[in-house]
Amino acid sequence: MKLRMAVAVVACAAAFLGSAYAIDRTLPHPFREYAGIEYRLGSIPLPEDYQEKTEWAFARLMFPPGWNNGYEGRDNPDWTQGTSLWTQDFPRADRHFSLAVRRLTRLSARSAEQIVSLDDRDDVYNWPWVYAVQVGEWGITDAQAAKLRDYLLRGGFFMADDLHGTVEWQVFEQSMKRVFPNRAIVEIPDSDPIFHTVYDLDDRYQIVGHDHLWEGHKLDGYVARWRGIYDDKGRLMVAISANSDIGDSWEWADAPEYPERYSALGIRLGVNYIVYAMTH
User: Fold this and answer.
1) DSSP letter at 177?
2) CA distances in angstroms from 135 to 173, 198, 247, listed in the order given
3) By the 8 A CB rule, do 209 and 165 touch?
């Protein structure tokens, strides 16, 4: 009898621990600050609501750099610890844009970002909208590509930003062929709902980054392209802003020297993308 009771207790304990582990895998990870490539840890004030549980948060995707990493030698060799390619404009852009979302929409949104890793168990599935910058220089692995594909097919949305010119486009396009071998990247038509969810954005123009204002473009990326990947039901899963730097339009939205027209369009685009992601 004692042996039977002991076995039952052990079995119950094992079941409890197994359930707790399974639940832990699905819970959103707590907020954590990282150092950026441009901003030191703590140089941008931390919003008071950074721990608030809301229906939306700015989910920034971390990723390893690729062979054409423009920050090589200045970045942290361990890309998972910040000060890496994925931290361009971070966290200033994230927090400026999150503030805009709080003011311009009725979404429950916190003012601080959330860093998401495709290597981190099931965490990405907690975030309906994820954003990545400098994707023309990234080097995602096959495992990360597979996780991103599963996330998107389950209903997730990916905003890919700040890639410029021929080479960066080729790098990104090749990586997305590993994510979706049989799905093409296409031009998003003006009639697509993503350009009309909150703001009507038929008049879209190139959003130039802060450091390239005098040129009017970066590298050989002369013309803005609004491209994407759709699922079988016509839902846009990936929105790509090629030859534009929307992240800079958020980052420099409060800078007198940065043209207001770029931030005006960048914020409206971002709001549309979020509301689309949350409703489609």
Assistant:
1) H
2) 10, 26, 12
3) no
Q: From CA 113, how far away is CA 47, in angstroms rounded? A: 10
Tokens of 195: 């350009």
Give the Cα separation of 164 and 77 in Å (integer). 24
Alpha-carbon torsion, ordered 101, 102, 107, 110, to 10 deg: 100
For 8, phi and psi rounded to 5 degrees?
Answer: -65, -40
Q: What is the rounded radius of gyration, in angstroms, for the C-alpha atoms of the chain? A: 20
Which residue positions in the chain have pLDDT lower than 50?
A: 6-7, 9-23
User: What is the predicted pLDDT for the residue at 25?
Assistant: 56
Burial of 237 (0-12, 13-18, 19+ CB in 10 A): buried
Instruction: State how far the Cα of 47 lies from the Cα of 63, in Å rounded to an integer.
Output: 25
Pairing of strands 59-62, 114-117: parallel
pTM here?
0.90
Q: Does domain 31-279 have CATH number 3.40.50.970?
A: no
Helix axis angle, 165-179 to 142-153, nearest 10°: 70
Task: Label residues 117-135 b or e (16+ Cβ within 10 Å = b).
Answer: bbeeeebbbebbbbbbbbb
- 72 Cβ contact list (under 8 Å, min separation 6): 65
